Amino acid sequence: MHNQAYWAIASGYLLVTFPMSLLLASATQRWRREAEETGMRSSISLNEAGKWIGIFERLLVFTFVIASHFEGIGFLIAAKSILRFNDIKGHEARKEAEYILIGTLMSFALSIMIGLIVRSFV
pTM for the full model? Predict the structure, then answer.
């Protein structure tokens, strides 16, 4: 593997982890506050689980883009929708559902963009 390709891929993996977590937390802060005001996270939840789920999702999305397996991204979106369906049913959970959707779409879009940029160096 070329040295430039190696560093581009390594940089991409680094970017989609904690730096992007901070960026997304800042970008979605307004919606998080709104959702918390309506009782978001009232059910039992692991501390910071959403942050780690997001990091692993972005790593997978970035990997799928680098490997040219874009269908994997669709599978992730479908799987997340199925797993979250029962959690966000009902009118009272609407703000939480919208907050999760905004964060997921931002996260996936940025991961795809970084993956495509890195692919141009590989």
Answer: 0.84
d(CA 110, CA 87) in angstroms, rounded, equals: 25
User: Contact 59/73 with Cβ under 8 angstroms?
Assistant: no
**Where are the domains positioned within the chain?**
3-121
107 in Cβ contact with 54 (< 8 Å): yes
Q: What are the tens digits of pLDDT across the range 7-37?
A: 999 999 999 999 999 999 899 888 888 877 7
Distance of alpha carbon 119 from alpha carbon 106, whole angstroms: 20
Q: Where are the alpha helices (DSSP H) in the chain?
A: 3-15, 18-27, 29-37, 49-66, 71-85, 94-121
